[in-house]
């Protein structure tokens, strides 16, 4: 194998990791668009949804039936979380809401451990084994599959944000809930919808990555920081940005870990740190974000 | 004229009451290590040192309006500075404190410069990424930091003349440092720096127009805040006598921020309350459910935020405010006056608002991530 | 005004007096630091805190919350064993009271809990602490207090090589000993092996990797590539791709369970690279291999020292039956097939043997008994693996046996490898 093939192979591995980060970053972007907060519990909710899918399949349901059921359950669950956990602190400082999501993170993580234990669970791969061989570079079907699904979700979100009235409404709510309410928007419903959609996208992310990362309660914990980096790089408002950001972070950290020996695998977690810092210093709104216009 | 004398009188009375409170607090604090069991004294010592870190974070988040999710990193830097000095150079404990403080001040200064360009949410993410990056970096610097195995160093030992047990001596030393640190934080906020910070937090542009030097004060706020975290880290090394990279994971940073918000932002007592929460509530959760303490701990965090959205320090004010609004006007006066006693208490206790009031989200500047699309 | 000043001064004086009064009168809660000691005979003056003729109090600190909670279940195996013993008359007539505390895998929390167990609960011994950071954070304190800290749940070699902490001992084969087993196997079976190593970047990974490199030094076996990962990493797929570039013919996989599954799966996916996969003991449970698919892990090699509850070959083993029955009875929500539960059972029954061997029923007695074990057999340990310690040897278990995965279970092969005999005693 030549050095070029090696490099490409590493890059493909990076794309695989990047697709994982992108899938969770999409959910983060979604909730930020709707509610204006960052949700620390997003990954844990995704993990919980994945356990729901696992439980359904363990009781005999086939994958392609368990998936839509899980997505529906997650949609309802997201609404429920907004109603029970988030609504009581609406109107409190936003940092309070962020800390509530930290509490939710700890709660959900421990709850999953309590119910399903911390043993790694067997999660079926929806995509076929094996992969393509492109001139010596192996691309797994699972990587392609995740990339494909992520692309579709990204497209749907783009349409939702740009070409429906829902997009406009949610932007109004995230920007200024009080004014939105005065102009007749039912803020509560919009926020509930935001949490529901984010939970659904998160559930899809969890189900996709579980066969690769292996399902256990801490599955999404490590992904979260990379997903944050991806969302920041792409701009916290843009689904396209989240995906491009995710892939870029994945490839960058993999290549840095493999080829830059000063950094090495142990310090590659510094890559998202450097990326976030660099992007924000140069272009604080992210690659695809809109520039902030401050009202003075 | 009569109103002026009355005002002077109440002012004097207020000052006397404050002095009395301080005296009582000192008496109680002095009595504590002779009353409680050693491990309880140890717990209180930990509360005090976490309070120092939270007081620092409060300068930044509560008064400066910038969010840091990386203060665990400065805490770690202070702890490692002390541990490395004790381990390699055998300098004695007291010498490590100024070094840890100065080192973290400079580190904070260096961080404060890029932080100028970042606001709210974004600064939080950068600092979080740094906190995640620190443990592997500490492992890499093995020759100095002892790598993954960490460093075991001597704890603080009582001098023979004191006649105190180890836990008592440690408690008094940490109490002294904490009291100094909290006083320093208070005075900082009453100085030009504090006024500038609050002006910046409440309205950056207006403050700038009025001649507040924005970049200088924001950078300094970060540096002071990092220094407090570093001092807390240094105390940690004195008390625990062991540092390892995995002791300072990103969980610590998130815990610190959570502790501060739970205790109460922009309040002088908030850090103490938050530190107590961080220290005691995990144990309480465990007593409630041995099978899954995390479930209870997570629920308790959420529950506290429900009951006291502006933090525990703001709770009495909120309760009094709620009571006052239901009572006739005459009895309401002392209740509303209560929060005024501490002008630093900021908007939290003095605006007793119900959480359901959506307008607060807009008027509340603390901790709000940037609205990226204010068009 | 004057009147007002007077009252305030009076009030202040009253408050200070009250405070001083409480200060002087309040020594009661602080508790006595003096330890209970044995009255007479050869054991005179030794500590008897936490032990009577009828009871013995033990306290363990485990991560029941936080990132390492997967290991918390060890406490359930331990607790089940003690309940089983209590049902059968106790240890030498003493009922065991076992207190479990949670440290969330955080060293400062471990210190707090250790102090609570010693000072408030007055335990006889701290059995066990889990993980190298937590154990290292409390061992100075426990040794100063002269409280036994037997059989810590970490395999770092420092627990055995250290001479300043006589009250602390390890139990499981230390990571260096395990590395030696693999080194010996490769030197015999593949003397020209080129080895790629995937390791966790902490004391566990570093100790094992270092031990392996030392053990193969001077032989034909060479380490040609090494890659590390952090426990906070989401996956090890990038590291596996890097290692594949080395084209090594052996992969030494030093990972914890989830990452073990990931590495095994990545190895199976990559059809272009088929090294002999050696997975370390921590990640060798059937629970780790099953999610990867048994067809993907055929021929994988590992080493072990206790009976895997998921392995059907021990189904009729009397100790395994007792373990299974007790787990079903006292921990019905816990999966008895989880090897960490069996680990807990095995280490608790090892402690039972050490307690039985005490010459004096005192803390000193336990300290000495743990350091003077002669070929003690424990039910859940593999045949041929026994506990042995003595002067100059503070490692209870130094023997492991190799195994290979075939069909749906591990098959032991070769003879148990006594690393002490093969490589000599382990020193700093």
Layout of helices and strands:
The complex is a heterotrimer of chains A (296), B (375) and C (428).
Chain A: H1 3-35, H2 42-58, H3 63-86, H4 94-116, E1 131-134, E2 137-140, H5 141-163, H6 165-175, H7 177-182, H8 187-213, H9 221-234, H10 239-259, H11 270-282
Chain B: H1 2-35, H2 38-63, H3 71-89, H4 93-115, H5 120-140, H6 142-145, E1 151-152, H7 166-190, H8 192-202, H9 204-209, H10 214-240, E2 242-243, H11 250-263, H12 270-288, H13 293-307, H14 315-326, H15 329-337, H16 347-350, H17 359-363
Antiparallel strand pairs in B: 1-2
Chain C: H1 2-25, E1 55-62, H2 74-87, E2 95-102, H3 107-120, E3 125-129, H4 132-144, E4 149-152, H5 158-161, E5 168-170, H6 175-189, E6 194-200, H7 203-216, E7 222-229, H8 237-245, E8 250-254, H9 257-269, E9 276-279, H10 286-289, E10 301-304, H11 318-330, H12 339-356, H13 363-370, E11 399-406, E12 409-412, E13 417-418, H14 419-423
Parallel strand pairs in C: 1-2, 1-3, 4-5, 6-7, 6-8, 8-9
Antiparallel strand pairs in C: 10-11, 11-12, 11-13
Helix pairs in contact in C: 2-11, 2-12, 3-4, 6-7
Q: How do you describe this structure in short?
A:
Helices cover 72% and strands 3% of the residues of chain A. By secondary structure, chain A is mainly α. Chain B is an all-alpha fold.
- Report mean pLDDT of chain B, rounded to a whole number: 81
According to DSSP, the number of beta strands of chain A is: 2
Strand arrangement in the largest pleated sheet of chain B: 1-2
What would the average pLDDT of chain A be, to the nearest integer? Answer: 87
Give the overall silhouette of chain A. Answer: globular
């Amino acid at each position: 194998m030549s050095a070029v093939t090696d490099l490409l192979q590493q890059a493909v591995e990076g794309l695989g990791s990047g697709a994982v980060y992108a899938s969770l970053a999409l959910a983060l972007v979604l909730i930020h668009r709707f509610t204006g907060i960052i949700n620390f519990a997003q990954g844990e909710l995704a993990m919980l949804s994945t356990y729901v899918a696992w439980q359904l399949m363990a009781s005999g349901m086939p994958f392609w039936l368990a998936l839509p059921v899980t997505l529906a359950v997650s949609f309802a669950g997201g609404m429920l979380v907004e109603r029970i956990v988030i609504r009581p602190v609406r109107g409190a400082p936003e940092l309070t809401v962020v800390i509530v999501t930290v509490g939710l993170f700890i709660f959900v993580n421990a709850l999953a451990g309590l119910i399903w234990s911390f043993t790694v669970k067997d999660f079926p791969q929806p995509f076929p084994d094996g992969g393509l061989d492109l001139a010596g570079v192996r691309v797994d079907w699972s990587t392609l599959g995740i990339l494909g699904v992520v692309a579709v979700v990204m497209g749907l979100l783009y349409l939702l944000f740009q070409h429906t009235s829902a997009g406009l409404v949610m932007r109004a709510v995230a920007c200024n809930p009080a004014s939105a309410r005065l102009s007749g928007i039912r803020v509560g419903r919009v926020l509930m919808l935001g949490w529901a959609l984010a939970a659904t996208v998160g559930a899809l992310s969890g189900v996709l990555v579980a066969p690769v990362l292996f399902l256990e309660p801490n599955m999404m914990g490590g992904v979260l920081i990379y997903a944050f980096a991806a969302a920041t790089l792409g701009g916290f408002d843009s689904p396209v940005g989240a995906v491009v950001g995710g892939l870029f972070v994945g490839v960058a950290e993999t290549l840095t870990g493999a080829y830059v020996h000063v950094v090495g695998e142990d310090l590659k977690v510094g890559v998202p740190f450097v990326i976030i810092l660099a992007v924000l210093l140069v272009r604080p709104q992210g690659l695809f974000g809109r520039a902030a216009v401050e009202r003075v | 004229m009569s109103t002026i004398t009355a005002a002077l009188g109440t002012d004097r009375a207020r000052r006397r009451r404050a002095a009395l409170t301080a005296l009582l607090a000192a008496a109680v604090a002095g009595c504590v290590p002779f009353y409680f069991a050693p491990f309880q004294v140890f717990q209180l010592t930990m509360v005090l040192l976490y309070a120092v870190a939270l007081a620092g974070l409060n300068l930044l988040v509560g008064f400066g309006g910038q969010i840091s999710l990386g203060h665990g990193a400065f805490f770690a830097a202070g702890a490692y500075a002390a541990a490395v000095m004790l381990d390699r150079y055998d300098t004695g404990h007291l010498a490590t404190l100024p070094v840890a403080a100065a080192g973290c001040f400079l580190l904070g200064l260096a961080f404060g410069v890029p932080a100028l360009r970042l606001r709210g949410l974004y600064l939080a993410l950068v600092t979080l990424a740094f906190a995640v990056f620190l443990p592997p970096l500490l492992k890499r610097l093995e020759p100095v930091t002892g790598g993954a195995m960490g460093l075991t160093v001597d704890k603080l030992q009582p001098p023979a003349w004191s006649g105190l047990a180890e836990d008592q001596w440690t408690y008094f030393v940490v109490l002294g440092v904490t009291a100094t640190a909290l006083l320093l934080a208070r005075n900082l906020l009453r100085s030009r720096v504090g006024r500038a910070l609050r002006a910046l937090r409440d309205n950056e542009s207006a403050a700038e127009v009025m001649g507040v030097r924005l970049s200088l004060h924001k950078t300094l706020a970060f540096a002071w805040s990092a220094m407090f975290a570093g001092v807390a880290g240094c105390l940690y090394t004195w008390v625990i006598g062991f540092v390892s990279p995995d002791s300072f994971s990103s969980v610590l940073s998130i815990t610190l921020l959570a502790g501060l918000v739970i205790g109460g932002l922009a309040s002088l007592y908030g850090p103490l309350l938050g530190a107590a929460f961080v220290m005691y509530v995990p144990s309480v959760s465990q007593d409630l459910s041995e099978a899954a303490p995390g479930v209870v701990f997570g629920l308790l965090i959420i529950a506290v935020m429900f009951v006291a959205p502006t933090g525990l320090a703001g709770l009495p004010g909120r309760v009094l405010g709620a009571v006052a609004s239901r009572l006739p006007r005459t009895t309401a006066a002392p209740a509303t006056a209560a929060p005024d006693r501490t002008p630093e208490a900021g908007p939290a206790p003095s605006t007793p608002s119900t959480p359901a009031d959506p307008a607060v989200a807009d008027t509340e500047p603390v901790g709000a991530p940037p609205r990226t699309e204010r068009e | 005004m004057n009147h007002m000043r007077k009252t305030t001064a009076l009030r202040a004086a009253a408050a200070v007096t009250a405070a001083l009064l409480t200060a002087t009168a309040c020594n009661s809660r602080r508790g006595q630091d003096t330890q209970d000691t044995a009255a007479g005979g050869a054991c005179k003056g030794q500590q008897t805190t936490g032990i009577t003729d009828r009871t013995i109090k033990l306290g363990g600190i485990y991560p029941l919350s936080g990132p390492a909670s997967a290991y918390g279940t060890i406490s359930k195996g331990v607790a089940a064993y003690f309940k089983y013993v209590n049902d059968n008359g106790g240890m030498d007539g003493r009922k065991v009271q076992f207190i479990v505390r949670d440290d969330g895998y955080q060293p400062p929390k471990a210190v707090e809990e250790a102090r609570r167990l010693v000072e408030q609960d007055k335990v006889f011994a701290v059995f066990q602490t889990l993980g190298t950071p937590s154990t290292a954070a409390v061992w100075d304190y426990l040794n100063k207090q002269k409280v036994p800290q037997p059989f810590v749940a970490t395999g770092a070699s420092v627990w055995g090589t250290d001479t300043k902490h006589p009250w602390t001992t390890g139990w499981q084969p230390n990571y260096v000993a395990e590395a030696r087993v693999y080194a010996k196997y490769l030197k015999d079976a593949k003397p020209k092996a080129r080895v790629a190593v995937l390791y966790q970047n902490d004391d566990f990974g570093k100790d094992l990797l270092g031990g392996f490199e030392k053990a193969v030094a001077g032989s034909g076996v060479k380490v040609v590539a090494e890659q590390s990962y952090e426990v906070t990493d989401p996956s090890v797929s990038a590291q596996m791709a890097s290692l594949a570039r080395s084209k090594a013919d052996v992969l030494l996989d030093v990972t914890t369970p989830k990452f073990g599954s990931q590495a095994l799966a990545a190895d199976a996916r990559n059809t272009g690279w088929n090294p002999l996969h050696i997975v370390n003991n921590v990640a060798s449970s059937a629970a780790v291999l099953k999610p990867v698919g048994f067809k993907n892990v055929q021929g994988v090699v590992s080493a072990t020292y206790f009976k895997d509850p998921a392995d059907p070959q021990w189904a009729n083993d009397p100790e395994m039956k007792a373990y299974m029955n007790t787990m079903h009875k006292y921990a019905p929500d816990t999966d008895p097939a989880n090897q960490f539960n069996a680990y807990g059972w095995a280490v608790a029954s090892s402690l039972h043997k050490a307690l039985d061997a005490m010459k004096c029923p005192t803390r000193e007695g336990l300290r000495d008994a743990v350091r003077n074990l002669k070929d003690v057999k424990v039910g859940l340990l593999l045949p041929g693996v026994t506990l042995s310690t003595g002067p100059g040897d503070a490692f209870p278990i130094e023997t492991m046996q190799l195994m290979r995965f075939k069909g749906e279970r591990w098959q032991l092969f070769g003879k148990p490898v006594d690393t002490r005999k093969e490589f000599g005693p382990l020193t700093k």
